[in-house]
Amino acid sequence: MIKKFFGTLLFSFLFFMGQNAFAQNFEQDELVNISVYEKINQSIVAIDGKITEDEYSSGTGCIISTSGLILTSRHVIDGVKDIKIKLYDGTEQKGVVVGTLKGGNDLALIKISTPKPLKPIALGNSTEVKVGQKVLAIGNPFGFNNTLTTGIVSRLDKERNKIQTDAAINPGSSGGPLVNSRAEVIGINQSIYNPDNNKSNIGIGFAVPINEAKEFIRKASNVN
Questions:
Q1: Is the pLDDT at 14 greater than 90, yes or no?
Q2: Residue of 48, 58, 106, 173 marked catalytic
Q3: Same domain for 207 and 127
């Protein structure tokens, strides 16, 4: 009995020390980044399609229902034929457009058929967003799938109803989620601003507030 007690005690001590050593390998801010990425990675998709023989479109989307509804930016799928959706595990599905929203908040809803339930991303509340809070963006910039970048909310553009961020957003990231440190989507990455005709990122990006997307989703689908 004594041997069993001390054996259990030793195991508990070693387990605690192992967990503690793991935690000590990373700063608290790094642990947040790791946790968020691991929570949302399976909910992110790459979107590709052909517009003409020489013109292609690519972007990012996030899964918002277990049945295969995907939220993205409308300009990602505008004029695209044969929309291809690549899931985190590399499998591809054909996407069908369910609805689009034109104007300043260009959003689109795509549906895929899948034999197994998908992992949806959590939607947050964009009315709670504050300038200076930590944000993370995940997308497929230049075809580098599931790329994570971090930054802060730089500004709330009330005139255009956009969230401005310095998290790196590049071509291919459009339609991807801007999330908070709780892994909740607060915006859909839409565009970047710079002097070289939006060819690269200089730290001025814009996202559509997720509450705008929620309203669009309610109208375009049966998602509650």
A1: no
A2: 106
A3: yes
